[in-house]
Design a protein that fits this description.
Length: 243
């Protein structure tokens, strides 16, 4: 997540929007651009204050009867979700972090469509109603898209140099608990594939994945398999849980 809108001249932006959208929608945009804080664990390291754009929106959803649900969701995706997932292709989240991110996303969706206690809804029904999916799957998709772009680039770019250097033997090391970083997360994604020899543990594995990435059709098939396996792990939980 990122306070991306802090770099925008908001007065200029609102003046432009004033000529495009209606007054009620402009009022909602003003609320969306206000910064508030959310404590969320990113990468399993430490709790940091991250900026989001939704804490004051509850009053807007309560009094926003003039706005259609479709309009609210469109504004949410453009002005809130884009901030929430800023640079998400570089995130290395532990499982607990993914669940916390998905729970926060569902809470936002409930605000948007006006689902409040004591009304209950399953996660699967909520995503279907909002035409959304778990945010962790969106992060996974973007992670693999970026990974493929890097593998197809020249070997001399910093990203490829860093990947190759990561797997260079460094001599004897103390045996410690593996930390959650991008190579570990990508390897975990591959390890879920059934009857697959793909992994990301050595320099040779990178070379094998480079050959696949150069053939876009094969790379697309691999990414689709990774996404479907991740979706399958969550589907049973969404049928049983109620948030």
């Amino acid at each position: 997540m990122s306070a991306a809108f802090d770099t925008i001249d908001r007065a200029t932006l609102l003046n432009i929007l004033e000529t495009i959208i209606e007054e009620d929608e402009l009022r909602l945009v003003c609320f969306l651009l206000s910064n508030t804080c959310l404590n969320i664990r990113i990468g399993g390291t430490k709790e940091e204050k991250k900026f989001t754009t939704l804490a004051k929106l509850q009053n807007v959803w309560v009094r926003g009867d003039k706005l259609k649900k479709k309009t609210k969701l469109k504004l949410y995706r453009a002005l809130v979700k884009s901030v929430l997932t800023y640079n998400c292709s570089t995130w290395a989240l532990i499982q607990a972090g993914e669940k916390k991110l998905d729970a926060f996303h569902r809470k936002q969706l409930k605000w948007v469509v006006g689902i409040r206690y004591p009304v209950k809804i399953t996660n699967k029904a909520l995503y279907k109603q909002c035409n959304e999916r778990p945010l962790s799957l969106y992060v996974l998709e973007n992670r693999w898209r970026l990974f493929g772009h890097i593998l197809r680039r020249d070997r001399e770019i910093p990203a490829n140099k860093a990947m190759e250097g990561f797997f260079v033997p460094q001599g004897d090391k103390y045996r410690v608990r593996p930390i959650t970083i991008l190579p570990v997360v990508l390897n975990n994604d591959l390890s879920r594939l059934e009857s697959s020899t793909y992994c990301l543990k050595t320099f040779k594995d990178i070379e094998n994945l480079k050959k696949i990435a150069e053939q876009r059709d094969q790379w697309r098939i691999l990414c689709t398999r990774v996404q479907k396996e991740a979706e399958a792990l969550q589907s049973d939980d969404y049928d049983a849980e109620r948030r």
